[in-house]
Records
---
Amino acid sequence: MHRETLGEFGRIREFFAPLAGPGGLGLGDDAALVECAPGRRIVATVDQAVEGVHFLPDDPPDLVAKKLLRRNLSDLAAMGAMPRHYLLTTALPKSRGDDWVKRFAQGLGEDQRRFGLHLIGGDSTSTSGPAVLTLTALGEVAVGGEIRRSGAKPGDRIWVSGTIGDAFLGLKVLREGNGALAPEHCAELVVRYRTPDPRVELGVRLGGIVHAMIDVSDGLIADLGHVCEQSGAAATVRLNAMPLSEPAAALVGGDETLRAQLASGGDDYELLFTAAPERGVTIARLSAALDLPITEIGVVESGSGVRVLDADGRPVALAAGGWRHF
Ligand SMILES: [Mg+2]
């Protein structure tokens, strides 16, 4: 059935132009203008969400928008960058109504106010396939203040923010139902899956303190593996040091297999970083100031690869690779 819609330009005017920042020129020109103060650099990242892969047709459109934006913000945070602007490209099925687009734009509006960035441009097309949404985020960092994956040094301690495994469990709850878990715990896990909390302020404030950083998107162990590979180092982590939320801890109980699964689940969007041991005091202070748990989970060593130890200090074999879309 063909439905009347506002069309490409109508949707831009109604839903997206109100989100435009000064550099976006009202979304009315050919391209955007990006200011960057002297001594600072633009940090750019892009993420894509494909219907049926990253979200489902009946997922709330505002939450689809927020997750897409937040995945990008988490990447900026992992570089120590402050978010400033974003560009959005949508390829939507012709049957997609204006209401979906309106709610999608509302989600973006709420989050750009919350995280302090603006839409400055993009493109929209229609497709005969599933919806594809692509968001490019631009942040800013002082020259030399960026935090790379490649700086981990043997002797560094490894820390992670927040809690790990909630999104993995939230997706499980959505797919398989809640099992034995209390309804409020289920709801908490689903929120963590649908609207992760990118650690924007933590990322910015860790500049000059840490040696290497990554956001946990593929899974704690896989992402730590990326840091080790880029740094030419090895790491050992203690599985029972991995921070769990109350609902996750309730589900894990004594199930060490599930605990290990959470370490290789994905979508946490917490920050994982390494720093010299004496930075622990500063990091604890930052944790208190931001009211965000930051937990030491292991140590960087010379060599290669990630070693995972159980509660008795025995090596655990984990399914390799972390979470993958393909
Ligand atoms: Mg990342």
---
Amino acid sequence: MVPMDALKLADTAQSANPNKNYLFDDLIARIHRAPAQWRLIVTVGQPGDPTDDATIPWPEGREQVDAGTLTLDEVESEAPGNCRDVNFDPLLLPVGIAPSDDPLLSARSAVYSQSFTRRAGEKKEPSAITPSDVRK
Ligand code: HEM
């Protein structure tokens, strides 16, 4: 995902900002000003390119396909539970997408399932972030 409006280096100087939520607050303000967008760039591998170790970069110059744009133009709080009751298992894939032989995928699938099962059984406090917090 390649940001179309990348974080400016000057913004990172705010890390000394006393408001520890400045990235969170800034994202909300930014999306109210204009959509945040990323391009989905797919790199096409060649036979022999490693698919089982994400720490080994593929050689330079591989064909790249611009597969579309992700646009975030609305902010929602988590209060209605819209992203809470989701398992982010990387092996739950849509038709047409197959997993690689990267062993991290099945390791992640197993720990996400365990994590999801544990948090699904926890008592839920009301969200600290309400719908009005993201409408400011
Ligand atoms: C390419 C590497 C990885 C990516 C892109 C990734 C991405 C993610 C994402 C998007 C979430 C959901 C975050 C959220 O709830 O907002 C997540 C959760 C989580 N990740 Fe990863 N992750 C990666 C590697 C790993 C590894 C190696 C482990 C441990 C073996 C791991 C353990 C977890 C756990 C335990 C959760 C919480 C799952 C749940 O309760 O639903 N992740 N990860």
